[in-house]
Amino acid sequence: MKLLKKILALCFLLFGIPFSAGMIWKIRNPKTAPQDKDNAVAALIILTIPSTVMGGWLSWSLVQQNQREQALLIESSQNQIELVFLELIENKSGKITVLQLARNAQIPTQSAKEYLDEKAKELSADFEVNEDGNVSYRFSL
After folding, report:
1. Which element (helix H / strand E) includes 95?
2. What's the CA gap between 45 and 56, in Å, rounded?
3. I need a surface site. Which of 8, 74, 113, 141 has the fewest CB within 10 A?
4. Residue 111 to residues 15, 72, 79, 81: CA-CA distances in angstroms?
5. Per-residue pLDDT tens digits for 78-134
6. CB atoms within 10 A of CB 18
């Protein structure tokens, strides 16, 4: 469906824009006969403007559809991370590291750290640093 929309939008715009410009040029040209100007106005109103509007509308709907799909992907990803986080907290008795979350949620370690820092603030978690300098987050169950 998306491919069809793209093709139709392209066709409408490729027809509408150049022919609209041509009709406008013909209407504004002082050497054009009055009958030709009337025909150009009719062509502009009946053919080229609706085609351009339809192509623009289809293009806009494609942009909106892509934005909705991106938002759904982000939301789905966030929900997946949340589920992994909760599962790890439950399985690890409230103690979790950045590496554990990154590995289990399959996200970059920087994203895991940011997520855990945010959750630590939200849920008032404690921090533990081992002798290697690794930080563990301790969440109350």
Report:
1. strand 95-97
2. 16
3. 141
4. 46, 19, 14, 10
5. 999 999 999 999 998 889 999 999 999 999 999 999 999 999 999 888 888 888 778
6. 12
